Amino acid sequence: MSEPVSKNQLMAALTLMTRYRNFVIGAVLTGLVIVCAFLSAVWTPHSAVELAIRSRLQLPSLEHWLGTDHLGRDILSMIMVGAQNSLIVGIVAVSIGVFLGVGLGLWAAAKRGWTEELIMRFSDFTFAFPAVLSAIMITAILGPGAVNSILAIGIYNIPVFARISRGAANAIWSREYIMAAKAAGKGRFRITVEHVLPNITSVIVVQATISFAIAILAEAALSYLGIGTQPPEPSWGRMLNDAQTYATIKPYLAIFPGAAIFLAVLGLNMLGDGLRDILDPRLTRGR
Amino acid sequence: MALLEVKNLDVTLATSRGPARAVRNLSFDLDRGQTLGIVGESGCGKSMTALALLGLLPENGVTTGSISLGGQDLLALDEDAMCGVRGNRISMIFQEPMTSLNPLHTIGRQVTEPMLIHQGMTRDEARAEAVRLLERVGIASARQRLDNYPHQLSGGQRQRVMIAMALSCKPDVLIADEPTTALDVTIQGQILDLIADLVSESGMALILISHDLGVIAETVDRVLVMYGGAGVETGPTASLFQHLAHPYTQGLFAAVPKLGSGGKGKSRTRLSTIPGLVPELADLPPGCTFADRCDLADDKCAGTMPTVHDVANDAGHRVACLKPDDAKSRMATSEAGA
């Protein structure tokens, strides 16, 4: 016996959705990637790894919605499984960055002095190498593979989070309630955990979403270069690489994985922007 | 031996312009139940003195001299031991109640925390004590307030919460750094009365820092006037207000705006000021810090450390000045003229 939704409620919901349209679009696109990833774990239209040479290079049809590649694998299925791969890379790489980077940033802000100097200069040093370049270096040392590429992207993320959390933490450390907390007899560690960290969470969450998008892009690049995810494990970057050979005769092969990367990255970036709008209203009022 | 003894306290801040002596050669002592007011204009070292007592100077600050609390030398304690002193034996009320509470934590959490840290109370005990404290500082429906966030309280209420926090561990010394500056005049009096009542109830010692002479006159027994980091005059409130012995103290009092002070025939008077500016702490003269703004000063003043004299017959009223007699006679003529 539910009340029919009134016109006003509908209008209010619409207004909210337009005000936070970045967030809404971002959340929908990101949600789509997540649904694909989970769904592919239990069901895909066809096998994503089995070869069916006879039905190779087919155009999109009712049987194969997005067509098949040069080995006859179903493109839609591969994209769905590839979403899994991208998500895992994003989650693990961003987690490495968040835990170590935020830890280092908070440590630097709490200790100040030469500890801060050392951590930040080290961050600058690591930061100076572009993500893909440092990933290539790391895979050159550790060997190619999904795990090493995750590690490489994760390491690249550490200084990103160290810098942002140290900057935000320094701003919090200069607040008066921190002085009051010190005067109440709290040590640096306690102040960091109880006062500084909760106050910089929104900054970290926003950065994490954006770093997630960068991680997906970096993983695709590494797989495209052949040093990321190894076959037969489907990956969006690898699919692009495979499609390259047939780019002139079957251009749609590149379009679908490319679109998947594009939409996932766009979605995460919009989600990040939207979250920033919601979590830090002061920043957006001026726009 | 007094509860709190500060001897020859020097605070030096390393700045880009060289070392700045924010507090120089300051000595005072304070016993239980006593109240000391520290007066002076912005940048005279009042707050630095308070922070030095708590060991919370900025990183570029160095403290020398001695601060002893109940016979224990605070400057010799390491950071962990100081954490045990702060909020427990010495606590502080800050100027800005609006920003001194963490916006993300409830009032209850912030008031109970010192008790959880220092007194080892259980959460329930601390909560019960917090209700009692909030009621004592005059917060209505204290139990419900525990679950409120700072933004749900007014400025006056927040300052009451800060006071409750500062008192939660029954400190020996309470430092109130301009506790009423950010509040409405109507609330100011209430908060000062509350602080005075709490001090006499609990027998703790109070250091009240203010630039407001009215606030000082109403609340404390003894006054320390600071200028350029140095204590220039100290004494019992009544005696100090009666015989303004230091040229700076005289200037400070003359600068207090008075209603209807224009006198006959004059509808308006200019507000009196002390000429010049507070000196840069990095380039203070070697002698009296007030020398370059003092109309009685001569060349000797800027070069020699002022000597300390007893003022009149009042015990404990002392002034650091090379020309106390000139200052005294000037006071006498201005009073005669008034």
Q: Describe it for me?
A:
- By secondary structure, chain A is mainly α.
- Chain A has eleven helices and no strands.
- Chain A is flat.
- Chain A starts with 6 loop residues before the first helix and ends with a helix.
- With 338 residues, chain B is of the alpha/beta class.
- Chain B has twelve helices and twelve strands.
- Chain B has helices at 46-54, 79-85, 107-119, 123-136, 142-145, 155-167, 185-202, 213-219, 237-242, 247-254, 299-303, 324-337, and strands at 4-15, 18-30, 35-39, 61-69, 72-73, 90-93, 173-177, 205-210, 222-227, 230-236, 308-310, 318-320.
- In chain B, strand 9 (222-227) and strand 10 (230-236) form a beta hairpin.
- In chain B, helix 3 (107-119) crosses helix 4 (123-136), helix 4 packs across helix 6 and helix 6 (155-167) packs parallel to helix 7 (185-202).
- Chain B is globular, with a radius of gyration of 21 Å.
- The A-B interface holds A 112-113, 175-177, 179-187, 190, 194-195, 198-199 and B 54, 56, 59, 79-80, 83-88, 91-92, 94, 96, 99-105, 113-114, 117-118, 162, 165.
